[in-house]
Amino acid sequence: MRLPLAAAALGLMTVPGAALAEDDPHVWLEEWNSPKVDAWIAEHNGATEKRLTADPRYQTLSAEALAIMGAKDRIAMPGLSGAAVTNFWQDEQHLRGIWRKTTLADYAKAEPAWQTLLDVDALGKAEGKSFVWKGANCLPPEETRCLVSLSIGGEDATEVREFDLAAGKFVDGGFALPRSIQWISWEDQDTLLVSTNWSGDDLTASGYPYIVKRVRRGQALAAAQELFRGTKEDLGAGASVLIDGAGNRLTTIQLSRDFYHTQVLVPTAAGGLTRLAIPEKASISGMVAGRVLVKLDEDWAVAGTSFKAGSLVALDRAALLADPARLTPGLVWAPGPRESLEQVAVTRDRVVLVTIDNVRGRAWSLAPTKGGAWKTRRITLPDNMALGVVTTRLTDNTLFLNAEGFLSPTTLYLADAAKGSARPAKSLPARFDASHHIVEQFEATSVDGTRIPYFVVRPKDARFDGSTPTLLNAYGGFQVSRTPFYSGTLGKNWLERGGAYVLANIRGGGEFGPAWHEAALRTNRQRAYDDFAAVARDLIARKLTSPRRLGIFGGSNGGLLMGVAMTQNPDLYHAVSIEVPLLDMLRIGKIARGASWQGEYGDPDKEPDIRAFWEKVSPYHALRAGVAYPEPYIFTTTRDDRVGPQHARKFAARMEELGLPYYFYENTEGGHGSGADIKQSAHTAALRMVYFMQKLMD
Fold first, then answer.
1. Beta strand pairing call for 351-357 and 339-346
2. pLDDT tens digits, residue range 18-34?
3. Residues 399, 62: Cα–Cα separation, whole Å
4. Residues recognised as catalytic
5. Residue 60's pLDDT band (boundaries 50, 70, 90)?
6. What angle, 0 to 180 degrees and rounded to 10, lies between the N-to-C axes of helices 35-53 and 678-696?
7. Does residue 141 have a cis bond before it (omega within 30 degrees)?
8. What are 373-394's pLDDT values in tens digits?
9. Of 36, 87, 532, 579, which one is least surrounded by beta carbons within 10 A?
């Protein structure tokens, strides 16, 4: 289990989480909330909203975004929960959403007869809490008992309650866990394996739980049996229980030393735990027919065979449990030079893989054979599209996949993994007129000669005189791949009005496997920033756009990218949207859950070379008076307990100190995102789009 980019288990605090930096005049903005901080936010929000909502385009853009986000005819994305199809749905009447179910046969109809299971708006109103849905974890294979997770305002910390899917209600006296960052796995119908903040002080320095206990039905949490304990110096620890379609089970404990290095432990016959001899940069991805699937993020030489990073291998469950130290894996899938493994899913007796080849999707169904090999067939889906597994189940080989492209609305496919067949089940109506745009793929050459692919969505009649308003986006971190997607709001608000959109596949992502990611880790991170600038320059050299008409945007790690792009190459861009960002890279370990990402960025407090790098590159510290920076739009949310709003606040305050113009907006809810409901999301989307139009289209 890879621990996610999560955050503070105790939610918002009223005091800083670390000692103040005496030489940082804006460190007071690291407080989550206080009268002084709240007043600062209100003042800056008011100024930004006044400037942007006064634009006559705001009301139209907001209405268009809200209509698309809450449209009744959008695809109700399914979850296969045993015999039921479940769906979480939001619209203007259900802002926080309803969880509902129907049958597979009924779901195939144009208008399914949904049965509401849980109304999050009504629950929040009844309990006086700003609940946001965070998903349901149902016990396989029947999946009639589920653990529902709810957060306050969208933060990562959740409270968990047991829900009876068949009865359509919370279980009286059922499992209930208080608000925390936590990982929970069903061991059986009456037993959970839980990693949470048991005492109020059971979190690592990164803010994750590290003590795993067994919780039995009807048992007080204080009486739970401890199974494993890491240390506060670890990143965190959790448990998982794998079940396959044949009824095989495997319990594992995952101890994450940092974001990329995890030790996996399995139970012994004597009742203890022993380490499974797989690489630390590997993750267990499922189990089918007693074969345990392991995705490798580093090369592995074992039992006389070498497997390359990015491959998927299988271990025999029985042999694994008999001797976890001596393993004989078999190859399931290995990447080609431009391929990457994006998803691994399992059905009753098949493995389903989604791969990308030069950032174009493929889907495969694999069946194990008695000889240990795997019989592979491609699932028939449209070519040159982004593909994804939506949901599977263990009772048969049914699954749903989706396919989408920049100009191709999402289509949901009902597939049979055994036959390798797929047929359209639902299609999203077009949300904008795509007839005037085309999609192209190009490559830019970075500083060190590496070819960086990127997609361009542009008007067919673009004049190539530098006049096309263009938005450039990238992420470049955490081995996250960015592939084509269909966005009704981007299309309606921007493309229909003559704009172009560009998606860059820079290093640091996962588009070409682990090596593409590792090329931009730690002190090599400048490569990702050079890649992004290379794409911008290539767009300008092709005369699609010009610095006057080029805007950029990105969030989270992509927000850090935007901050670096703005401070290193201010002459390349006329607009920069910096969203839920990391920006103070010297105090990253002292803000929210920044300490957990040292595997990606390094530790500036303990590693001199890391500190030297970020002293030059950290956007907060790179700002200078008198430089003609583009006036940025800086966006964050108060309830972001993952990255934290502190980075954005301090960056804005530093710009103000230097007499530099900027926009700042902090949504009071939304977690590490744009809003806690569709009205909030439509509002924040419209603010950003007005900003880009003012900067690039006027």
1. antiparallel
2. 344 558 999 999 998 89
3. 36
4. 556, 672
5. very high
6. 60
7. yes
8. 999 999 999 988 999 999 999 9
9. 36
